[in-house]
Write a structure and sequence with these properties.
Layout: H1 2-6, H2 13-27, E1 34-36, E2 39-40, H3 47-59, H4 63-88, H5 91-102, H6 105-111, H7 117-136, H8 142-157, H9 160-176, H10 179-185, H11 188-209, H12 213-227, H13 246-254, H14 258-267, H15 269-280, H16 283-301, H17 315-325, H18 332-353, H19 361-371, E3 377-381, H20 386-392, E4 396-399, E5 412-417, H21 421-428, E6 433-438, E7 441-446
Parallel strand pairs: 3-4, 3-5
Antiparallel strand pairs: 1-2, 5-7, 6-7
Helix pairs in contact: 2-3, 2-20, 3-4, 4-5, 4-7, 5-17, 7-8, 7-9, 8-9, 8-11, 9-16, 14-15, 16-17, 19-20
Length: 454
């Protein structure tokens, strides 16, 4: 919580998502997400941005409120994991599962980030738990939770939520042949209607208000990005061309330290035998959890455009597998892992990002302080950066070496990228004076022009 409030929002995804959500609050437009003036953002559905905008409305606009929905979603996933675990296994195992989940690298990292994946993970976790209760435990009421959570997952990150849940659930049905229970206990017809009723209206409105959304999001983001490692249609970033099978490496890293614990347990003959004996007591559940963990990883194995956050929805199931087999003494790993993670995170920030161009807060902070004495617009050279827009509440504009706005007669401040510093210094002096040089930018203060142009 303290780190979420203390660390600045970073370019590009964090600052971009924080600013897109701020635009919802400013414009009152809860349908169209805006990337910049006149350019809609078609990269994600709105649920995560809605949650951030609500956080802003209730608690104000700052780093903590931008990250708060991710933190709350992570806590919600942990709470759901605990409740479900204690209905299936001893209460001690449920606590072990939560401690395992709360100490995984990817969980700690995403809980304090402006990102969509924690909310998606909460929804997919609820779907998978509700499916088990409805089909394997034959408790029909949970089916409604399954459909609602699935719809909210589609509103968080699109049809990928259907894949992440559909693959393991379908595999479970194939293995255990619970087809009759599935059709009789999941309210399939009315459940699908509920899914469409919750998720479809926004998709319809998004396409009707900004035509082209459906083609870009459904075809581009979900099909072209998946099959083409050089998809040139990405409007908002770059396609990640990873080696085949990278998602498995990401999973091993993301699930640290527990991936190492499991690898050690499986590689040791005595421990492996002990683990298998424990798992036999809950064989059906363990197979379901393995399907939940492995099926989405197999799906992403076929794509080279993957990020480490893609494995987050698999982590709750993996942690319950770990909790069902680990010894109580292993929990000291969790007590050590969390402070070590935060120590490494703080060290990484001060070593790599405090003075990195992705961190524009030092420049913007200096501008805000001087702007109180002599108000003027902030100009950034180069491409659009979202952190300055977020922190100045839109009081910034951008220019590059090909499209200059010219020098205003009124007071202004200009942040010059070091790449263009020599040329821009000749253009700006003697009227402008440098205020600070940080993170590959130099901020100039240019007071109002009162005489002849130099």
């Amino acid at each position: 919580m303290l780190l979420s409030a203390a660390l600045p929002v970073m370019e590009f995804s964090e600052a971009r998502y924080a600013e897109i959500a701020r635009q919802i609050m400013v414009t009152g437009n809860w349908v169209t997400l805006w990337f910049s003036d006149g350019e809609p953002f078609w990269g994600k559905p709105p649920l995560a941005f809605w949650s951030i905008a609500v956080s802003y409305l209730v608690l104000g606009v700052n780093e903590l409120t931008a990250r708060l929905p991710s933190l709350l979603a992570t806590i919600g996933t942990g709470a759901a994991l605990f409740w479900w675990s204690k209905t299936l296994m001893p209460r001690r195992t449920a606590w072990h599962a939560v401690l395992c989940y709360a100490s995984c690298v990817i969980v700690l990292q995403t809980a304090g980030s402006v990102i969509t994946d924690p909310i998606l993970t909460l929804m997919t976790t609820l779907v998978m738990m509700a499916f088990w209760q409805a089909v394997h435990m034959q408790q029909k009421g949970f089916a409604w939770l399954m459909w609602i959570a699935l719809a909210l997952g589609v509103l968080t990150k699109g049809p990928v939520a259907l894949v992440l849940c559909g693959l393991p659930c379908g595999l479970s049905l194939l293995i255990y042949r619970h087809w009759r229970v599935f059709f009789s206990h999941t309210h399939l017809f009315f459940g699908l209607l509920l899914l469409v009723a919750v998720a479809a209206p926004w998709y319809y409105l998004a396409e009707s208000r900004t035509p082209g959304f459906w083609d870009y999001f459904m075809v581009g983001e979900h099909f072209e990005r998946y099959i083409h490692n050089e998809w040139a249609g990405d409007k908002y970033g770059a396609v990640k061309d990873r080696p085949f099978g990278t998602i498995w490496v990401f999973f091993l890293i993301a699930s640290l330290p527990w991936s190492l614990v499991m690898l050690y347990g499986l590689s040791n003959t005595g421990l492996r035998r002990e683990l298998l004996e424990k798992y036999k007591c809950n064989q059906t559940l363990i197979v379901y959890l393995l399907s939940w963990t492995i099926a989405p990883l197999c799906f992403f194995t076929l794509s080279s455009s993957v990020l480490m956050t893609y494995v987050l929805p698999c982590i709750p199931a993996f942690c319950l597998i770990v909790a069902a087999g680990i010894q109580r003494s292993h929990l000291t790993i969790a007590l050590i892992a969390v402070p070590v993670f935060f120590a490494i995170s703080i060290g990484t920030y001060w070593t790599l990002y405090a003075d990195h161009r992705y961190n524009q807060w030092p420049i913007v902070k200096t501008y805000i302080e001087h702007n109180q004495e002599d108000p003027g617009i902030l100009i950034y050279t180069g491409k659009r950066r979202f952190a300055p827009v977020f922190y100045t509440q839109g009081n910034v504009r951008f220019e590059n070496s090909e499209t200059r706005h010219g020098i205003p007669d009124s007071t202004f401040y200009i942040a010059v990228r070091d790449l263009w510093l020599d040329a821009q210094t000749q253009r700006l002096t003697p009227r402008c004076q440098p205020l600070t040089a940080r993170n590959e930018f130099t901020l100039f203060y240019c007071p109002a022009f009162l005489g002849d142009v130099p």
